[in-house]
Write a structure and sequence with these properties.
This protein is of the alpha/beta class. The protein has 7 helices and 17 strands. It is globular. It binds FE2/S2 (inorganic) cluster. The site of FE2/S2 (inorganic) cluster has 14 residues, from loops.
Length: 321
């Protein structure tokens, strides 16, 4: 996908305050067509005109995949972030016209699994809501372990319990609850796949515990989109386009390329998918590699950069774009 990729024109059909931090948004098509099909785990990019700043933020779809009438997302407000979630919370109202990208799934259910073991932290619950709906209609086996700060901030805990009963296991941090991961992993039958979505620390903990317990890498799935970090402004020369661009303090390099009408591919916009990988022609300075796509060796060699999340400090950076 790129900045010129086709978009779906939508109307905001509903905005629901789920709790003090989370709002749910439902989009329906403005042209009367059905929404494109998607599978549980897919995300869309929501395009926003934030007072002159164009934002393209990815959010997991949480609606039922077979529902072709509309898409739903839930957004946690980030008061110290770059502004996308704040814009959605403060300015997006029912009836507003917006544009969204086509669904992309980087966190799909593995159809080979005999059972799906899901671990969610906080707003990381959203892709699982769509996946559990999909598994329910297909007759797939699953269980979800969902960790939240407390009941008030636990989005959809009551609804999920009502829908799926004892397949849902809840953990409230404020009550001192903790997932007994060693025991949970040890008790799984052969053919189970493990999925985790939540804060960075939770993903690393689950992945490393599974690895230590001998789970094959292909049976462990995670999704984490990083928000592009803020930082000092910097200048980049784009060799193919013959342009020099300046990346602002709360802008990503990818966004700066797009603002300069330089064609730059992306899927996740969060350092996870590899789509935006760009060759470095020369670098006199230091690349802040913020992605979790490049290997440590690739990062050390300074031959590649992921413009969606990584930044630069130093004298000169020339990229092959
Ligand atoms: S767009 Fe996915 S890693 Fe940059």
């Amino acid at each position: 996908m790129s900045v010129k990729a086709p978009r779906i024109p939508v109307t905001v059909a509903e905005v629901v305050e789920v709790n003090a931090l989370i709002k749910r948004f439902r989009f329906v098509r403005s042209d009367g067509q059905p929404m494109p099909p998607f599978s549980g785990g897919a995300h869309i990019v929501v395009e926003m005109d934030d007072h002159g700043t164009r934002r393209l933020n990815p959010y997991s779809l949480m609606s039922v995949p077979e529902d072709s009438e509309g898409y739903s997302i839930s957004v946690r407000r980030d008061d110290v972030g770059r502004g996308g979630s704040l814009f959605l919370h403060q300015h997006v109202k029912q009836g507003m016209a917006m544009q969204i990208g086509y669904p992309v799934n980087l966190f799909a259910l593995d159809q080979r699994a005999k059972k799906h073991l899901m671990i969610a932290g906080g707003i990381g619950i959203t892709p699982f809501i769509a996946q559990m709906a999909q598994l329910t209609s297909l007759g797939g086996r699953f269980e979800l372990h969902y960790s939240v700060r407390n009941r008030e901030l636990g989005a959809y805990v009551d609804e999920l319990k009502a829908l799926y009963g004892d397949r849902i296991h809840l953990y409230f941090d404020d009550d001192g609850d903790k997932i007994d991961l060693d025991r949970l992993l040890a008790g799984q039958s052969f053919g189970t796949h493990l999925y985790v979505c939540g804060p960075k620390g939770m993903i690393s903990w689950v992945r490393s515990t599974a690895q230590a317990a001998g789970w094959p890498a292909g049976t462990v799935h995670s999704e984490e989109f990083l928000a592009p970090p803020v930082g000092q402004p910097f200048t980049v020369e784009l060799a193919q386009s013959k342009k020099t661009i300046t990346v602002g303090p709360i802008q990503s390099l990818l966004e700066a390329m797009e603002a300069a009408n330089v064609e730059a591919p992306y899927l996740c916009r969060g350092g996870a998918c590899g789509q935006c990988e760009t060759d470095i022609v020369s670098c006199d300075g230091h690349i802040e590699h913020n992605d979790h796509w490049l290997t440590d060796e690739q990062k050390a060699s300074n031959r590649k950069i992921m413009p969606c999340v990584s930044r630069f400090g130093g004298k000169a950076l020339v990229l092959d774009r």
